[in-house]
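Q: Hi! First time doing this. I have a protein sequence and I read that you can turn it into a structure. Is that right? Here it is:
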Amino acid sequence: MSSNGVTLPTGEEALQMLMEGNARYVSGQFAHPNQTAVRRADLSGGQYPFAIILGCSDSRVPPEVIFDQGLGDLFIIRVAGNIIDDVVLGSIEYAAEHLHTPLLVVLGHTKCGAVTAVAGGGELEGHLPSLAAAIQPAVDKAKAEGGDLVPTAIKHNATMTAEQLAASTPVLAHLVESGHLKVVTAIYDIDSGEVHTI
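A: Yes, that's right. Below is the predicted 3D structure, encoded as structure tokens:
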């Protein structure tokens, strides 16, 4: 795919680039790509990220680090529990439609505090109930299945969000159906550093 003369990878190629970067991160063999003054200058005329990452705000899960990427590579939206609302959705639509980014990854992670809090069922203060409302369907689904509640809810939360995004009209669903956007669900393991698609 081409955007303003810049050739972008396919969604599958973009996913491969992320996974190769994650393998470098896990092994400690960082490439630290695209982090020079030259790269910064190249980006002054525009951005052409190859992947959109909707991830959690958790300080232990910085996408540029865990995927070993640099300036202009990733279009990142981070919110506790990697949930969506209209603002998050609009940000994703901007990258997918206007920057022609070919890959969207919904990145959950093990030991997610937001999902754990909702699964615990305690009273939440301030604006936290708005987060809980978005996560509760995944917790309910995990409870219905039985087994290990929090890890299962974390997976469902990421998967359900990815499904919502892929079906979102009018922008994202059209891009998915036309083959211009690949949507993937992934989980980052806090302990090992590995990212696995699900």
